[in-house]
Design brief:
The protein has a single domain, classed as SH3 type barrels, CATH 2.30.30. The chain is globular. Strands 1, 2, 3, 4, 5, 6 and 7 form a 7-stranded antiparallel sheet that branches. Helix content is 19%, strand content 40%. The protein is built from 2 helices and 7 strands.
């Protein structure tokens, strides 16, 4: 996998998983900053889901004409070898909401 950018959506192999972790190969958004993405073999991702839950850690989105959510309560770091292919990029509005929600989640 070549250059990976923040807020790109990639098809990513999440298995094997344990317990309540989101499973299977699914679309995920890259949330790690581009500076990290340029230098590390790993990326920080958040899965996308079509199952809506009213949790403060979920960001509503529309991607490839499908309504869903970015699951920020399931953020994880994966090796780039898990990335299957790039699917696109999230809208600037959703990108902004992701950043705001992450700031709220990790506020000190």
């Amino acid at each position: 996998m070549g250059v990976v950018a923040r807020f790109e959506v990639h098809l990513i192999v999440l298995d094997p998983t344990v317990g309540a972790e989101i499973q299977k190969t699914r679309p995920c958004v890259v949330v790690s900053p581009d500076e990290m993405n340029r230098h590390l073999r790993t990326v920080i991702i958040a899965p996308l889901t079509s199952k809506g839950r009213n949790y403060p850690s979920r960001v509503d989105c529309r991607f490839q004409n499908k309504t869903g959510q970015v699951v920020l309560d399931q953020v994880r770091t994966v090796d780039r070898e898990r990335l299957v292919k790039k699917l696109g990029t999230l809208s600037p509005r959703v990108q902004q909401r992701i950043c705001e929600t992450l700031q709220e989640m990790f506020a000190f």
